[in-house]
Amino acid sequence: MDLRKAYDTVEWGFIEEILSDLGFPSHFTHLVMTCLTTTQYSILINGVPTPLLHPKRGLRQGDPLSPFLFTLSMKYFSRAINTVASHPPFRFHPRCKLLHLNHLCFADYLLMFCKGDPKVVQLMFEGFATFSSSTGLQYLGVPISPWKLKGSECDIMIDKMVARIKKINAICRSFMWFGNFDDSRPGSVARDKVCNPKACGTMGFRKIVLWNQAATDWSQFIASNYASWVVSLVCMVKKKCSGKLQSSEWLNKSRYSIKEMYSDLSDSQPKVHWHNQVWNRISVPKHGFILWLYMLNRLNTKARLFRVGVCMDNLCAICGANEETILHLFYKCKFSTNCKTSII
């Protein structure tokens, strides 16, 4: 289980109450609550800060005190779940019975163990509900139920996974073109043309969705008539892989290679003759990146930017005499000519 926005949803009233119940001095509790309740935030909108915002709950990220306060919250969770274990109807998981273990915690990740009986699972759920209502911490993911989950009930988890993959793609694209993680402007080269082998004239990045499919050895999954929706979904992807490859011979291989499967699933692209001159161990990565854009005719020269209305003129920023095209910038500009002459 994963707790949703763990630090942001802890109730201040709960923190004050648990500090008092654990016997901390009232003066110390007052100092801690002063640190929490005097927090203020301001949001930048179009570069202009908003008036100060005063939150009503949550722990500050990066505050040295926050991890200790959150640990106290999770201590309450341990007590609540241990109390559940003391109820007569409760039964431990067969593998955890000797240890009397029914939960583990690591930061905001929880593992809960019990016998797979609806009544026992319901007890565990009630214990967590008590913890959630007291602390404000909630479960992130599929619904908790003592019954077998339907595929439709897991849509929320699938949506979150898809959203996470899209977010990762967006961060990679933004960092590649603009050096940060939250820039929504389009890059000079389309994402699909970036995610191909370098021999095809691209950056050699991998497509996350396709790599995720290739990273699982689908051959071990066989869906029976009574298989769960998870196994059925995995086997459906296996069929798609066989359809993409137009063969099922890969299922009979003694050794499964993620790299080979990813290469087979990727659409074949024509190779270029210049990729070794651009991507090699000798060239500086920044210089290779510029040369790659040059080969694709995607450098943001002033002539290119002028056509889309970004700059006021298209004259060369160095000599100011001619239109700044790629040809002029690298070969015809006086500065470029002098550089080549001095080097040669």
UniProtKB/TrEMBL annotation:
Domain Reverse transcriptase positions: 1-182
Coiled-coil region list: none
PROSITE patterns for the chain: RT_POL (PS50878)
Pfam families: RVT_1 (PF00078), zf-RVT (PF13966)
Protein name stated in the entry: Reverse transcriptase domain-containing protein
Organism (species): Spinacia oleracea
Gene behind this protein: LOC130461790
